[in-house]
């Protein structure tokens, strides 16, 4: 073999070796793919996804399925270049920069805990929205979820405190408390009246300057007191995007008749206690998951419609979801064949 041929052969082996090594090097991307679905009027691990105690319930049929997005990668377990390349050529998945899912300098465990809190809040908001739709009264209290270490509220307010009032104004929701604090100048004090255990306490908390805004360093959560028990069991699913489907599942169980008409319906969307449906992420992967689960109808938040229209799987009908009330009317129309079924429109 000539020296030239040997040189070319060695160079080829070197390029191949570098390519193989490079293919398995970690890269800062995350692969998003269709995740599992759960029928909110069905069961998981032989337990109802939505269990209701203390109120009459009614039989259901069909499916009202929440959809999820699975991810691979992240700061603690980065994917390699080969995995990213496979994702880029797969139309059912998305490959996104790591920082779009995990904020820089944030512990992945903190992100998971935040998703768990968001899921709990979503379940409470879903129950509140469903009961509001049915005109079933309930009450709400603002509770202290945590305080920020080193901030004025640390050591003064405690986890689980129920905030009754701020500066004498009833704490009817989280925004009322937040706005009451913001009404002060940095350095001024805020008077909280809280219930701790069975006793009420007045707690004075000074504010500090946070980029020109007054702050006490408290994380709050709206906690509802419902007239009966609603228990939602979804395992490891996190985040707020299943709110709409939880509300529909609760409604279906609490009312005679079958909301689905026996159809397999899937959907997504955050929910406000007042019934407004909000946008979510990963719409393309969620539609694929819905289709794979046998759904023929997909309830789509209005702000996701334009994106969804670009990648809707064959055989999946998109129904626009503006509010819980409008979505119930749309399902009634689908079931009876009478009335308007709002469709997604391309943006």
Extended strand count: 22
The H-and-E topology, N to C, reads as: HEEEEEEEHEHEEEHEEEEEEHEEEHEHEH
Which structural category fits the helices and strands?
alpha+beta
Mean pLDDT: 86
Query: Rg, please?
Result: 25 Å
Largest sheet: 6 strands, mixed
| Number of helices, counting only DSSP H or I runs of 4 residues or more | 8
Overall 3D form:
globular
Strand fraction band? 25-35%
Task: Report helical residue fraction.
Answer: 25-40%
Low-confidence stretches: 13-23
Question: How widely separated are the two ends?
Answer: 64 Å
Order of strands across the main sheet = 8-2-6-18-21-22
Précis, in short:
This protein is α+β, with helices and mostly antiparallel strands and 347 residues long. Helix content is 30%, strand content 31%. A hairpin with a 2-residue loop joins strand 10 (162-166) and strand 11.
């Amino acid at each position: 073999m000539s020296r030239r041929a040997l040189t070319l052969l060695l160079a080829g082996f070197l390029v191949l070796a570098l390519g193989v090594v490079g293919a398995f090097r970690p890269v800062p991307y995350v692969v998003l793919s269709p995740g599992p679905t759960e029928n909110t009027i069905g069961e998981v691990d032989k337990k109802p996804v939505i269990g209701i105690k203390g109120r009459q319930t009614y039989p259901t049929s069909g499916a009202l399925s929440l959809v999820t997005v699975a991810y691979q990668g992240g700061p603690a377990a980065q994917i390699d270049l080969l995995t990213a390349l496979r994702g880029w050529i797969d139309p059912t998945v998305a490959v996104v920069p790591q920082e779009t899912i995990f904020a820089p300098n944030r512990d992945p465990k903190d992100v998971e805990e935040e998703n768990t809190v968001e899921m709990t809040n979503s379940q409470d908001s879903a129950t509140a929205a469903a009961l509001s739709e049915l005109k079933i009264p309930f009450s709400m209290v603002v509770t202290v979820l945590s305080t920020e270490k080193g901030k004025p509220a640390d050591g003064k307010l405690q986890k689980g405190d129920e905030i009754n009032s701020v500066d004498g104004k009833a704490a009817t929701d989280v925004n009322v408390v937040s706005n009451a604090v913001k009404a002060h100048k940095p350095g001024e004090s805020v008077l909280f009246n809280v219930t701790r255990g069975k006793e009420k306490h007045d707690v004075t908390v000074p504010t500090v300057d946070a980029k020109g805004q007054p702050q006490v360093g408290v994380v709050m959560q709206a906690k509802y007191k419902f007239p009966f028990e609603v228990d939602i069991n979804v395992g490891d699913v996190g985040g707020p995007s299943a709110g709409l489907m939880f509300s529909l599942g609760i409604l279906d169980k609490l009312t005679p008749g079958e909301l689905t008409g026996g159809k397999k319906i899937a959907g997504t969307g955050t929910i406000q206690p007042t019934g407004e449906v909000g946008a979510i992420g990963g719409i393309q992967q969620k539609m694929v998951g819905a289709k794979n689960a046998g759904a023929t109808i997909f309830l789509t938040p209005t702000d996701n419609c334009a994106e969804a229209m670009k990648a809707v799987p064959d055989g999946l009908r998109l129904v626009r979801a503006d509010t819980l009330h409008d979505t119930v009317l749309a399902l009634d129309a689908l079931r009876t064949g009478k009335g308007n079924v709002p469709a997604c429109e391309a943006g």
